[in-house]
Design goal:
By secondary structure, the protein is of the alpha+beta class. The protein has three domains: about 110 residues, Gcn5-related N-acetyltransferase (GNAT) (Aminopeptidase, 3-Layer(aba) Sandwich), CATH 3.40.630.30; about 140 residues, Aminopeptidase; about 90 residues, 2-Layer Sandwich (Nonspecific Lipid-transfer Protein, Chain A). It is built from eleven helices and 19 strands. It has a twelve-stranded mixed sheet, sandwiched between helices. It has a five-stranded mixed sheet with strand order 17-16-15-18-19. Strands 10-11 form a two-stranded antiparallel sheet. A hairpin with a 2-residue loop joins strand 10 and strand 11.
């Protein structure tokens, strides 16, 4: 029987959600409230479902994001999400068809890059995605780390006071680090202010803290508390959601606060930047345990458009070859960049550096040096050319995406 791929209608939301939730080991709550929340967050025109005899057998969808880039610019990005195939229909090419539908949709909307968080890191390289934003999972015993005192005033506030401060601070932080996503009002409400009990994993409701300097908000953090006692001794944990500050002092103030909660000496965070500064600020950096993983992946859909959208911290001109086996972009280009701007022109010349579209995605936001990828066999070119290419693309600060989608 033929399998058609198309966007879903409002009446098909429950069936779509049922397939997604089962794929990730859950059960969909398709009550009126849950369906309404889905409608508010998801553009149904950007859903892709595979139908066989009227039944949903595979799913995907795209969020319309804007992502920060090196240099402070923003670019539209198609954020792929909700990808699943029912077990009875694996190995039939459905995922590839969904990916093609997603890419064609993004290109048609002028999105020069796509992004995603991978459920499995082995899946998406074949579709041109590279791990562009590493994540660092951290935990430490605050009684041993020696976190400095807070430079700023911090206050635990209720959500009504936190909302405006969080939005204002995030708007200031957004352009300062690549890889972050602009947040719509709907995104704020559903992803950061809603606090569903099923999200708590045995911990408390979300706490909100705002850091103030001269009366003005300069940072915020969210966290939960998870109580634990060992033979009468407190061993609770502070589970940090995110820490956002306009500068180093604001961030330190917030880490100092979450490290100073009586009965909760253990501090853990699922995602901090790879260039996180706290290990360099504490008295005992060995107390901080770090695990590096893959975070947001990026897929370049328009090489000239993507490279000219971001900023650069140095100047050079180099001929690069980009291979895209799926044929959405790619070619040989003369790439000239400087702090004043960039130009990418297709040329008929011998490339100095050759990369796959997947490797370009990994390099795009500036987290990974081209030299390490060349040594891994992912880039071809003379050592000097690779070094120049790397110097152009690296970003300080490093890219970071603080939320999964």
């Amino acid at each position: 029987m033929a399998i058609d791929i198309r966007p879903i209608t409002a009446d098909e939301i429950p069936a779509f959600r049922k397939v997604i939730n089962r794929a990730f080991g859950g059960d969909a709550k398709n009550d009126d409230e849950s369906v309404q929340r889905f409608k508010e967050q998801v553009d149904l025109d950007r859903t892709y479902a595979a139908f066989e005899d009227g039944n949903v057998v595979a799913t995907a969808a795209t969020f319309s994001f804007e992502m920060s880039l090196p240099g402070g610019a923003m670019t539209p990005m198609g954020g792929l999400t909700m990808v699943s195939v029912v077990p009875t229909h694996r190995r039939r090419g459905l995922m590839s068809r969904l990916m093609t539908a997603h890419f064609e949709d993004c290109i048609g909307r002028g999105e020069v890059v796509g992004g995603l968080w991978a459920s499995e890191s082995s899946i998406y390289g074949r579709y041109g995605y590279g791990n562009a934003c590493p994540v660092v999972k951290v935990n430490f015993d605050s009684s041993k780390a020696g976190v400095p005192p807070a430079p700023d005033t911090t206050r635990i506030v209720d959500i009504s006071e936190a909302k405006d401060a969080m939005k204002s601070i995030y708007a200031q932080v957004l352009p300062k680090r690549p890889g972050q996503l602009a947040r719509s009002e709907v995104w704020w409400e559903h992803r950061h202010f809603r606090d569903a009990p099923e999200w708590r994993d045995g911990a408390t409701e979300r706490r909100y803290v705002v850091a103030y300097r001269d009366g003005d908000p300069v940072g915020y953090t969210t966290f939960r508390q998870k109580s634990k006692w060992d033979d009468g001794m407190p061993g609770g944990s502070i589970v940090v959601g995110e820490v956002m500050g306009i500068d180093t002092e604001a961030r330190l103030s917030l880490w100092s606060l979450v490290s100073s909660v009586d009965l909760f000496p253990n501090v853990e965070a699922w995602d901090v930047p790879i260039d996180w500064e706290l290990p360099y600020q504490v008295d005992n950096p060995r107390a901080i345990k770090r695990l590096i993983g893959d975070g947001q992946y990026v897929r370049v859909l328009d090489v000239p458009g993507a490279l000219t959208a971001r900023g650069y911290q140095s100047e050079d001109s180099i001929v690069i070859s980009v291979d895209d086996p799926q044929g959405f972009t790619g070619g040989v280009y003369r790439f000239h960049a400087s702090p004043d701007g960039s130009e990418v022109v297709e040329v008929d010349e011998e490339p100095e550096v050759a990369v796959s579209i997947t490797t370009l995605g990994q390099l795009y936001l500036g987290a990974t040096g081209a030299g390490s990828l060349a040594r891994a066999g992912k880039i071809r070119g003379e050592e000097d050319a690779v070094r120049r290419f790397s110097r152009l693309l690296l970003s300080d600060p490093a890219p970071w995406c603080p939320e999964v989608y």
